Amino acid sequence: MTTATAVLDAHGLTKTFDGHVVLKGLDLQVGDGEFISVMGPSGSGKSTLLYNISGMDTMTAGEVRFEGRDLGALSQKELARLRLTTMGFIFQHVHLLKNLSLLDNVVLPAYLAGLAPRTELDSRAMALMARTGVDELADRDVSEASGGQLQRIGICRALINHPKILLGDEPTGALDSVAAAEIMDILGELNAEGTTIMLVTHDTRVAARTDRVLYMIDGRIVGDRNQGPYTGAGLDQRHAELTEWLMELAG
Amino acid sequence: MRLGVRHTPDLPPDEDRPDAPRPNERETGPHHGRDRGGERRSPRTGLYGRMVARDFARNRSVTVVLVVLMMLSVLLATASTGTLVRLIGASSSLMERADAPHVVQMHAGDYDEQQLERWVEQRSDVAHHQTMLTVGIDGADLSFDGEDQTTSIQQNSLVVPNAERDLLLDLTNEPITQVAPGTIVLPVIYAVQDGLEVGQSVRIDAADGFSKEFSIAGFARDSIMNPAVASSKRLAVSPDDLAEVREHTGEVEYLMEFWLRDPDTQLAGFQKDYLDADMPRVGQMVDSATFRTLTMIGDGMVAAVVILVALLLLVVGALCLRFSFLTAAEQDYREIGVLKAIGVAARDIRRMYLTKYALLAGVASVLGLVGGLALTPLLTRNITQYMGSTSSVWSWLLPILAALAVFGALVLFVVVLLRRFDRISAVTALSAGATGDQSGATRLRLRRSRMPVHLRLGVMDVVGRWPTYLLLFFVFAVSTFIMIVPVNSATTASAPDFIHYMGIGPVDLRVDLDHADDTSSDQFGEAVDQLVADPDVTALATMITTRNATVDSEGNASSLYIENGDHTRLPLIYADGRAPSSGSEIALSLLALNESGRDVGDTLPVEVDGQVRDLAIVGSYQDITRGGKTAKASLPTEGEEVMWYVVGIDLVPDANAAEVSQVYAEQLAPGTIADIDHWREQTLGPTARLLTVAAVVAALVAVSLAVLMTALFTRMLVARDTGQIAIQRAIGADDAGLRRQYLTRMLLVLVLGVIVGTVAANTLGETLFNLMFEVMFGGFEALMQGTSRIDFAVAPTLAYVLLPAVFLVAVTAATVASSRAISAADISSLTTE
Ligand SMILES: Nc1ncnc2c1ncn2[C@@H]1O[C@H](COP(=O)(O)OP(=O)(O)OP(=O)(O)O)[C@@H](O)[C@H]1O
Ligand SMILES: [Mg+2]
Q: What is the ipTM, given to two decimal places?
């Protein structure tokens, strides 16, 4: 499903590390409310793409517009504010702050943004944790939770400020298929509520649940498949079609 | 199905899984390094070399600071040892070259020469004896290069230089035995302090109109009256000139000089016998120990302070060494694991670290030694001017030994650290790369806090990982201490209230008159009568000091200077007890009390009017004048041996102290009348000035130390926390906020450090200051005997506001400047780690 209003609009996005070109002039439009997955072999630049469109990393060349604002023209402070209030990020390796409790990790972005009274932010965090099934762990240390639980905490943190867009770098990578399916259910609900979502994944079962699949090789988007919203039925069918498409691309 | 090929298993990095065990860390059984050690030698050294080289590159700033700290510590240890050695050497050599007498009895007025000679002849302990004639010139009659000496506290006397013993030495330490007519040789202090030069004039004007001008022919080092703190000065002229001046003006005083065969054992006995034998003694008696102490006080103090700073730096250096070692060990964790896994013995790994740190300490020590040796001449410039320079093997050897000692201490410290090495790696193996210094139990929570987020996060970090901040805390506390103690010492010694410790109450003017002969008491009496009638004078405390016999703690006869008068007028502050209020009471200076072996409340047998009276000791007070051993009582002075007179004078509020002094100055000559602040300044000036210099130097050292360590520490923290910073940046924390977190940490630790340092400075530092005074005035026997009980006179704005503010600004600047790396912490660099 593509809508006319693009939340995100990238043109000629290029990223170079020490002369090594990782993103080679990408063009990408993400519409409001889309649920996109990004696939591709390891090292093809998927994570780098996410970092660059969210302004976490500075691109070498090209232009990225988020809701019409040119990221390149924003100051470091404005970029930080933009990420804080309109983007949610789920990392490949979760990346929680190890000196904070799990709940503190979730409330941190909310406190940083300071958009509501802290008691309200606390209860919002508890509600999110309850929804993802980790509310029992609120006062635990980062070292006292399983990988799947940490990943959910990461999702709660990404959602705490009601982001316009949710960017996920293999949010289910460390999870078994049951846990992954649960996470995908949650993300599906969020998307249904209007959050734009873009996920990097290696898992075709995960990708099969999204509206649109991008395929990257060597810093370029070589495939862009619109497979329509997943309604909860016919997953095996979608999976089979997607796999076939991927086989063709990989070649 | 999964697409995309992963070459490595997708393990989460340490950031997220602090409890994940790492595969390679345990010592593996089958291959033990030593079995095949020989074969592996060269690749292994290569590996070690690479590890060490990379460690330097990775922790460049840490390494540099570490080397600088160790170097400074060695440098100061070297310089202070060198200074002390030279000081002791120069003063001994001066006394030796000048052949300084062992005992000098000053005597004003005439005496029976025959009687003295006869007495000396029958003494087997006297090796030599000579008498020197001095002609005291009143300050009002004397001017140096047109500068009137009325207000000078120095008592200048003309002498004809001796030819054989008690020599005056020129600036090359050659004896001055002759002075050409019309010229004069001044003590070197006038060249150093007043900037007088050869060729300038010295003028003596007598009351009868006589006037004589001398041209300064040179400057002399005087082994017994050299330092500023000794108030008598000998000015050498030709015999004819002396005779001429003597006809018109001057107070004749003789110096009875004695050389003993074995001064170490005979000094005390001789002094007592001399006094008992009723030999000429209208004046002070001083001995070589006193000359030596007076000579060494100032520079000795500076050297002591430098030694103290060197020790503190050594401690800071050791802590920094520990921090750097732990950081490096943590960073090398994987490599150590690999080494252990391939079977290298822990001993070899330890040796690698030891080599690395010994190398650093060695480089630092060599640099410090060279610097210290270069610095010594600067520190000893004063010594060189007053006493000449000496160079013996010791002045090279001891500093080198000091440097070696510091180096040895550092290496030993590394060895101790390395002993903990195995345990550390075991702990870290369990908690996988974590520093092991976070504790969940005491951790604060972000939730529900009302503080600004970054402030809160900063506080949480310090509380949660407090052991990490101990080093910094210690540095701040120490910096504060080494800044505040000298500052407080200096303000104390220059404070008007310091007068309380000089055996006199808070008066406006002070009269000092030494008893010379019967005319002295008349002179004194007349002056007092006139003062009583003076409308400008509101209160008067007249004191007549007598020398009375008493006993010391061992029951030996000794003598005590007792100041007699009404001590309830213009009272001073008593350390214990109160002023004596009747003829049966006495108050002792702390030093005298210590010497008597008694306490306040006991009695002291004192011979008064030929009879022994047991006086009740009702009080004790601090006195650093006249050798510090004094007493206060209200005993009859008639028929006693009077030593000197003192009058404390209070003036009406709007009286001009200088004008009043002027009125009496002439009348009291050769005694002095001085504004009390002026007198205090003159008496304590050199010490106070030295302390001020020490305070400025210490403040600079302290602030530099704090800045250096803050910069170093911030860098290390930011480097260590890169991952955590990157995460916060990724979720939307801006750099300014992150910097605030670091600032909060530093300032929190700073505030704690400053508080602890300030408290320590006012307790421990005050004790230290008093110990210094005890040694200065009572010698080492008086150390720790409570003979000095000076309270710090703190200048609150300076010590509690200004200096901490300087710290605050310096530390803030250092933190901000060193936390720039925050902006470089990117999530993408974290992922590829
Ligand atoms: N900070 C960096 N410095 C240098 N090279 C980098 C950096 N970050 C990424 N790269 C390189 O850029 C390329 C793309 O990396 P990226 O992490 O985007 O791949 P990816 O598609 O996310 O792979 P994976 O599926 O394994 O996560 C890789 O070759 C990687 O080595
Ligand atoms: Mg990736």
A: 0.88
